[in-house]
Amino acid sequence: MTLKTTASAATAPQSGPSGTGPSGTGPSGTGTSSKGLAASQIGLGPAILIGVSTIAPAYVLTSSLGPTVQAIGPYLPAIFIVGFIPMFLVALGYRELNTDTPDSGTTFTWVSKAFGPRIGWMGGWGLLAANIIVLSNLAGVAVDFFYLLLAQATGRPELAALAQNVPVNIATCLVFVGLAAWVSCRGLHTTRTVQFLLVGFQVVVLAWFVVAGISKASAQPGHLAFSWDWFNPLQISSFSAFAVGLSLSIFAFWGWDVCLTMNEETRNGGKTSGLAAGFTAVVVLAIYLLGSIAVVMFAGTGEAGTGLGNPDNAENVFAALASPVMGPFAILLSLSVLSSCAASLQSTMISPARSLLAMGHHGALSPRFARISPRSYSPVFATIFAGGVSTAFYALMRVLSTNVLNDTILALGMMICFYYGLTAVACVWYFRRTAFASLRNFAFRFLAPLLGGIALTAVFLQTAFDSWDPSYGSGSEVFGVGLVFVVGVGILAVGLLLLTGARRRHPRYFTGESLPVSAPER
Questions:
Q1: How far is the C-alpha of 480 from the C-alpha of 472, rounded, in Å?
Q2: What domains sit in the chain, N to C, each tagged with a CATH number?
Q3: Interatomic CA distance for residues 503 and 298, integer angstroms
Q4: In terms of pLDDT, which residue wins out, 244 or 234?
Q5: Which of 112, 98, 89, 135 is nearest to 20 (CA)?
Q6: What is the pTM of this model?
């Protein structure tokens, strides 16, 4: 693969108001969008596959079930359902925006068109920050399970301890991110092939784990009998506990919007990408409900042994449950989580790379980010940049935090609530002139995104308030302030500082010349 690039932003002819029609020739004779991305590379099925891959159910379950149970007890099914509702409402708003303006910049582009360049830039920054955080988190879990897998495969338990060696851990993380970036740079065709293999294996092993966990639960010390009360969110003890659980639940569903960032490369992207996002969320909800029921029934919520309340199990639940549930086939569960992380690490690269591409294309960042490889039709420079920043962030967090995975998940929940909520509100404002033209418009362009946006904003504010206390998360702090608050709110503050500098360097965007504010009349 060559790294030679061409600046599509400056030279590609625009094809229409949305800038997404064919303007050149891509692989196998397909057209290219105004940004130089190859059009019609994938359909509905592969888009859903990549969406599920980005969410990474196996990775999410192993990294979030422990902290969630410690916050809310056994009511995992309830919190997953409650977390699904605002995400699905927001997804409906995303679908309307995508149908109107299919653009790989998603939040950045749509918020800019609704509220203007400054708020749009911050929306894009929030999206990029969330992706950078999750890329580092994915790499961290991949490192842990890589060395666990080596220990299981060789019969040498001491190899698993290498994951706790900070220099070795960071170096291995760099290798994983580098491999993921390399695959992403080769384009969506390569991504699709890799995802078929990794996601298929992940789902099969998770199904095996669910069946084995439920069937063996009654013989396990500390197990819990199934209860319909687990589906009742009113059983959760306090609103703060509920907000923590909801923030983690929202993190668990995050990633479906990658289907929208591929809209310029999807067949009939204005419609297909929105459908793929909705189907992805529903499929993942089913996986989470089955997985959480199996885990709670088998392990219980106690603080000893394999109990989900045991702090030693919080970072990687499946690391503690693999052998008790799957016996001699435990290595398959470790391999499943590793494949889940690898698949998501690679597919998640799509979102920040294409967001950076759109920001470069519309003049909000350096035109280098708008360069497209003439061979793979992918934003190589933007992909490598995203991978490099995520690795640097992970290295910093690994040094500062005593529980890097838990803290980054909680901070990620804040970023997700910020940019999803902002996009939902932007949908309401952007379609203000047409929202009451029909019952359909009222439901999908006004009510659904408004309710979703309000819910996510409330979770963001509650999490920000609670995370000021160093006891929130791992207990790590910076000058007496909780690390989760420093990371979550601090990243937004950094975005404001960068915004100040960007306004001087990129006047065409910040004066509204390259991406003007608009609102459809019908």
A1: 12
A2: 49-510 (1.20.1740.10)
A3: 55
A4: 234
A5: 98
A6: 0.80
